[in-house]
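Morning. Coffee machine broken again, so started the prediction first thing and wrote up yesterday's gels while waiting. Chain of 362 residues, entered below exactly as on the submission form.
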Amino acid sequence: MAASLHIAGIRKIYGKDAHAVEVLKRIDIEVAPGEFLILVGPSGCGKSTLLNIIAGLEEPSEGELRISGKNVVGVAPAQRDIAMVFQSYALYPTMSVADNIGFALEMRKVPKAARVKRIAEVAAMLQIEHLLERRPAQLSGGQRQRVAMGRALARDPQLFLFDEPLSNLDAKLRVEMRAEIKRLHLLSGITSVYVTHDQIEAMTLGSRIAVMKDGILQQIGTPDDIYSRPSNTYVAGFIGSPTMNFIAGSAISTRNGSLFTSKGGGEFTGCPLTGEGQLGLRPEHIRFNADAHWRGEVMLVEPTGADTFVVMKTASGNITARTAPSVSMKVGDIVGMEFAQEHAHWFDAKTGVRVPAEGLSE
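Came back before lunch.
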């Protein structure tokens, strides 16, 4: 049965007194059995430290950590029944693929017949049956990462931990391995926690995403929650590529409703704020309309194949729009823009916290 994971009030402090640095600031996360949780954030946000605490490689300064209801703070890594896949493959170079996969089983004194059966099952799951007699030096990067996952999976752990496992792979292999990891999780059903700085990995892999910054959990939710209802400007700007556009300004109440005026003079209706704030617009929610009052000058056109990104200079700052590749534009063109009101995001200027628009379901 898949394990649950309960993280309550976890803090991690390095150093003492004036030299103390708090890298995790009371993290609270509940991971349901069979869930695939992504810890995402920039370098230094504390995500790998939290993963190491779950693994038992580091101890928390404060807080509680329970796996399937059992408090494991102070419990040795070997006693936690977890498996971990690292950024480096960490394979034994003198062993065959089969021996690498079965090494942990051998250390646990699993009978040879049972080991051979389990190695075959895992190899079939990872589609590497034809590689079992090879050595790591004879494998590609993607194949080595499959072997590393197979070694962890062979133990049938109650918790699977991934520490940026795809960072060493090229772009094509990363896409392939993302699909492989997702398929593997669906087949195994093992509760998994995956650390990455790549928001594309986070969005495509996770059943839920925990966004971190400076040791603080900013938001946790489904990929749709994080993308469509970001809790603050940090999450809104971190998740999404290209990043969300932000327009600073202030809102006032008028006879016809609230009116948001940007610092460049643009006017936008339907704002739930009063006073200083920011309007956030995803690039895909900006449409080109020759008759629109909001104007901009094309500064850059970036074809990517399926989409074209257009960067425009406006009185409210630079704006990036995502459009179809069939749209013909060139640098220097003056274009009109508009956006659908239901896709606007409004943020308080002081706190950066998102303010839901009136009448829209959250």
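The longest helix spans residues 171-188. Going to sketch it on the whiteboard this afternoon.
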